[in-house]
Design goal:
The structure holds two protein chains of two kinds. By secondary structure, chain A is α+β, with helices and mostly antiparallel strands. Chain A folds into two domains: 7-86, ACT domain (Alpha-Beta Plaits); 90-162, ACT-like. Chain A, domain 2 (Alpha-Beta Plaits, 2-Layer Sandwich), CATH 3.30.70. Chain A has five helices and nine strands. Chain A has helices at residues 21-31, 61-72, 83-86, 104-115, 136-147, and strands spanning 7-16, 38-43, 50-59, 77-82, 89-100, 119-124, 127-134, 151-156, 160-163. In chain A, the strands form two sheets. In chain A, strands 5, 6, 7, 8 and 9 form a five-stranded antiparallel beta sheet that branches. In chain A, strands 2-3-1-4 form a four-stranded antiparallel beta sheet. Chain A is elongated and about 55 Å long. By secondary structure, chain B is an alpha/beta fold. In chain B, the strands form four sheets. In chain B, strands 3-2-4-5-7-6 form a six-stranded parallel beta sheet, sandwiched between helices. The longest helix of chain B has 16 residues, at 136-151. The N and C termini of chain B lie far apart (54 Å). The chains are: A alpha+beta, B alpha/beta.
Chain lengths: 169, 582
């Protein structure tokens, strides 16, 4: 089963917003040898009772099925949705990108940022911090370009995702 | 909000309300308030073990024999870490337990306090669920919820970590009504459309087989009854995993015996050659399937399981039905009868099975003077059968021989560590079963190595006057390790000899038990009879042939059709791929 080609899947997991729940999810992935490409988590409910975890994972379809089933049987898990299977959905990621340099490089960094609709959120005479958001691909591309104009460091949120249309998962 | 009381009193009151009669435990600093509360009451009986691991195994034995939830109470730190093996064992074998662990007071958590450990962290992945209760007011609801989670769905161990200050503080407690959980909702009823499809497949099959597991036992005695009815209706042969033994009587004409690594030739061949496999509450464990790519290549497979994650984990199935196996079998029978089905002609199939059965794969041949372990277990079975004994085992050759040569006729009579394979399980499990059934004949079939892993529990049985019997198949080797070394590692018996064994008779006597030695075939019946006749606990040191191997056997990484039936088929050294398998 594990010899089938790997697929990238984005999972939304709604869980009790309680201590230890994230450790349970992450531990399940490591204990059973599943991959985590990215993971984000935040409280998303009015009463702070529910957190939404977005996991990007990869594996052959039977392994993805197993991941879903294993997550689903954890007691504090309300719901697991495979957005990749679900259908059209939006995936976004945000990055803060620090670039240092002077002269032409500094001008070029600003110009590229403009093309990517990246916003400077901090500036000094020798550096910028850009905020860029979009698909992971776009963020990757922006970071690659920034290497040529003085990239210093990057902080990324990891993917958050939501289904398109009027319905909630 | 109910009556105001201390956390410790809430624990005892909630346990009482939940119908708990027995708690297995060991006191320590962080659970003293609960022990104080236990001291002041008389409804719950506390059984003091000699090591926390044994408390958990005893609770498992109690749960497995009685169908109730087993309850454990241990202290923080080493109390909790000692319990981890038992908790993991219960998770692997789906045994319902609630394990209460003391914890350092909340203000000391995280400071590396004396006897502190991260119990919820350590048990997170070896329990079905766990809790750290930080407010006394939540204790009652958590306890009731924990029991619900432990016994419903796929049963398992639930750990509740209770800081000492939470045990001391006061809060209201009221017995809750029906428990429901906002996220945890086990599916009991199977999907009817799928069940109808399963019935049609079963009715059309020419070479069907029912492959049953521990789920049938967990579902309750009614499930075993339903299995008998289903088997009768469809006429298919039935095989069982180690954990499922007893759900169909051993001498039932359709029963092929246990399957898997040390299962019968007919069971494994029938699994390989069937055209329809109906898996009822089993999980395609590697000990059952052998080499996966050669596992039952030409069959369609139906899998009934209460745990969705069991489906397609290792073996792809054609039809998965999620639900309690008892409930699903009941619905299958209803559909079968409503549609007036008769089983398809299986005569050629049964002829084939008859041929495999004729190989008599569990047979053994007496050579030389020494008592054969298989013979010892066979006689133990024959001489105790009328008493409907409860049998527990340790882990190793003796366990497999017991599974092969001891016949089980009812569910809940066979207590063994299947998934985790925990040496040291059998004696405490027997103690737990004896507490559930004080009048029953309870025998731990043990090995001389395994029994030493929880030998201290002799004292527990003595203290509570439990007439547990231990039947040690003593071959002076960790027999299964030695067997693998013989088969896979050129006979290099690295550290598998049981040196410096105690005198088991004297050891028994030191604990107030009776000790009996069986030194050869001539002593066998008299020794077994003396064991049965003695009203108190007995250790039987049954000295058997030292180098006997457990056959038949599917070597690691081999297919069902590649069984070794006897020593004549043995190989001396395995290749590296086979050596890497467990």
């Amino acid at each position: 089963m594990k010899h089938l080609p790997s697929e990238r899947h984005t999972l939304s997991i709604l869980v009790d917003n309680e201590a230890g729940v994230l450790a349970r999810i992450v531990g399940l992935f490591s204990a059973r040898g599943y991959n985590i490409e990215s993971l984000t988590v935040a409280d998303v409910s009015d009463d702070h009772a529910v957190s939404r975890i977005t996991v990007v994972t990869n594996g052959p379809p039977p392994v993805i099925d197993q991941i879903m089933a294993q997550l689903d049987r954890l007691v504090p898990v309300h719901k697991v949705v495979d957005l990749t299977d679900w259908g059209p959905h939006v995936e976004r990621e945000m990055a803060l990108v620090k670039v240092a340099g002077t002269g032409d490089k500094r001008v070029e960094a600003l110009r590229l940022a403009d093309i990517f609709r990246a916003r400077p959120v901090d500036t000094s005479t020798a550096s910028f911090v850009f905020e860029v958001s979009g698909s992971s691909e776009k963020v990757n591309q922006f970071i690659t370009l920034m290497r040529e104009v003085g990239l210093v460091e990057v902080a990324r949120t990891g993917v958050v995702a939501i289904a398109r249309g009027a319905e909630a998962v | 909000m109910g009556t105001e009381m201390t956390g410790a009193d809430i624990v005892v009151q909630a346990l009482t309300d939940l119908g708990v009669e027995v708690v297995f435990g060991y006191p320590g600093g962080a659970v003293l308030p609960i022990y104080d509360a236990l001291f002041k009451q008389s409804r719950i009986r506390h059984i003091l073990v000699r090591h926390e691991q044994a408390a958990v195994h005893a609770a498992e034995g109690y749960a497995r024999a009685s169908g109730k939830v087993g309850v454990v109470l241990v202290t923080s730190g080493p109390g909790a870490t000692n319990a981890v093996t038992g908790i993991t064992d219960a998770l692997m074998d789906s045994i319902p337990l609630v394990v209460l662990t003391g914890q350092v007071p909340t203000h000391l958590i995280g400071t590396d306090a004396f006897q502190e450990c991260d119990t919820v962290g350590i048990t997170r992945h070896c329990s079905k669920h766990n809790y750290l209760v930080k407010e006394t007011a939540k204790l009652g609801p958590v306890l009731h919820e924990a029991f619900y989670i432990a016994r419903s769905g796929r049963p398992g161990p639930v750990v509740i970590d209770i800081p000492k200050d939470v045990q001391i503080m006061r809060a209201g407690y009221a017995k809750p009504g029906v428990i429901s959980h906002k996220t945890y909702k086990p599916q009991v009823k199977g999907d009817l459309t799928a069940i109808e499809a399963a019935v049609e497949m079963l009715a059309a099959a020419e070479r069907p087989i029912l492959y049953t597991g521990g789920g049938v036992i967990n579902s309750g005695p009614v499930a075993s009854q339903l299995l008998r009815e289903l088997a009768k209706a469809c006429g298919a042969p039935v095989t069982s995993t180690l954990m499922g033994l007893g759900s169909l009587p051993d001498d039932h004409p359709q029963f092929l015996g246990m399957l898997g690594m040390h299962g019968s030739y007919e069971a494994n061949m029938a699994m390989n050659k069937c055209d329809l496999m109906v898996c009822l509450g089993a999980r395609f464990d590697d000990r059952v399937t052998g080499r996966l790519d050669a596992f039952s290549p030409n069959s369609r497979k139906i899998h009934v399981d209460i745990d969705r994650s069991s489906f397609n984990k290792t073996v792809r199935v054609d039809l998965a039905i999620q639900g309690d196996v008892g409930s699903v079998m009941e619905d299958m029978l209803k559909v079968w009868r409503a549609r007036g089905h008769r089983a398809a002609d299986q005569k050629p199939w049964w002829e084939q099975i008859k041929g495999w059965r004729a190989r008599n794969s569990f047979g053994f041949e007496q050579k030389g003077e020494a008592l054969l372990p298989q013979k010892a277990i066979q006689r133990l079975y024959e001489m105790t059968r009328a008493k409907k004994p409860i049998i527990s085992t340790e882990v190793g050759q003796h366990q497999m021989w017991a599974a092969q040569h001891f016949g089980f006729h009812e569910p809940n009579k066979w207590l063994t560590s299947g998934g985790l394979g925990t040496m040291g399980y059998g004696l405490p499990a027997a103690i737990g079963a004896q507490l559930a059934f004080p009048g029953a004949l309870v025998i731990d079939i043990a090995g001389e190595a395994s029994i030493q892993m929880n030998i201290q529990e002799l004292g527990t049985a003595t203290q509570y006057r439990l007439p547990v019997k231990i039947f040690i198949i003593n071959n002076e080797y960790m027999g299964m390790v030695r067997q693998w070394q013989e088969l896979n590692h050129g006979g290099r018996y690295s550290e598998s000899y049981s040196d410096s064994l105690p005198d088991f008779v004297k050891l028994a006597e030191a604990y107030g038990w009776k000790g009996i030695t069986i030194d050869g075939p001539d002593d066998l019946d008299a020794g077994i009879q003396a064991m049965i006749d003695h009203p108190g606990p007995v250790v039987v040191d049954c000295r058997v042939a030292k180098l006997a191997n457990c056959f038949p056997m599917i070597p690691s990484g081999a297919a069902h059709t590649d069984m070794i039936l006897s020593a004549a088929d043995e190989r001396g050294e395995a290749d590296d791929d086979a050596k890497a398998l467990v």
